[in-house]
Amino acid sequence: METMSRPLVRVLGQGVRWATGLRGGGSALPGLFMEKLHPGFVAEELARLPRGVVVVSGTNGKTTTTKMTVQLLRSQGLRVFTNRTGSNFVRGVAASLLAEMDAFGRLDADVAVLELDEAHAVHFVKQVQPRISLLLNVMRDQLDRFGEIDTTRRMLRQVARATTETVVLNREDPRIAGLADDLSEGTGVSWFGLSDALRPMFPSDDDMRDGLRQVDPGEQDVQVPSVRRPDADVVLEAVNARSVELNVGGEKHEATVDLYGVYNQYNAAAALATALRVLGTDADVASLVAELGSVTPAFGRGETITVAGKPLQLLLVKNPAGFRLSLASASAQDYATMIAINDQYADGRDVSWLWDVDFDSLRDAGVDMVSGVRAWDMALRLDYDLVRVGSVEPDLEDALRQFIAGSGERPMRIFCTYTAMLSLRRILGGMTHVAAI
Question: Which residues form a coiled coil (predicted)?
């Protein structure tokens, strides 16, 4: 293998990608092939990009925020490479590179914007130093994978320290904001944040536990540095049903953000702050703000699929804060509701976090269907909050068909964990048009 030329390895990798595509194989297999035959492939290819690499990581919102950032940059004329399938580890990036290269091994891109899982981001930045990193938040998510919440923060700290130019940080998350004090020499900070009026709507993990309060630096845990609130480049000032008010560099702008969930409106502020850093003086703020109105949901993140003539929204839930914000984003009375909870590795084996979600908002309307591997656990949790459950059916396909048939004239929404979401999309693909991932 040592004597095999880089072009030959790349051609073989593209051949593996083509062959696995014909057989319906997994998207990361060609990347695994390249990792074994040419470990420096990803670093070498990304080093050729004139505007470098942007890494997006954090517990919540990576996929949607990456999609927003890519669209904003493309609207300004940049050619953007991204791992659009959500293959957010090194071999997934390699597989995406093989898919985007032409027959001569050329990648038509100015910049890479990559969504990376917190744990895999640590390995990625050892190979590729990002020019810019966007770090969104640290929440209790899949603790059976990553351990304590401060373990996740330490992972993101390594990403921040590997960043060469600018780290874009969430001003309102104390564990993220504290990273500003521990960057490599020469690395700058850009902030996105919330107005005081909106802060209670977007609790950090500490806020979820203790309630939103002004923290006295003298009582801080050593793991959570004292948080100052510096001026932010982009501030989310107010939210409405389909629009937001943004303060960008001291100027007020109104933007349409037609995505389900107030958390996606905050993600829009993060994406805009990142795009401004990538573009620098080339940025046209007014057109970037306008482009936010054209962003559509990423798969399973508020994605709307039309089935039986009615809209059905798929809403990914992974932790208490995310579930809480999803529930708060629309009145339960307006929807037929299903909840699907799995406990596979990608979901997190430990579903005890469901007990930290307040389901009182579902009490009047109830939940029509509960499904998934942990359906009975979810039904029990709802019973403790006095939420009526119409049916419990662990089999996702049977549950989905019953749910659709029984929804009447109401639009539908399904709160689901990751593997449940993938299964539901596959089942829906047999009933109606579902966009390719």
Answer: none
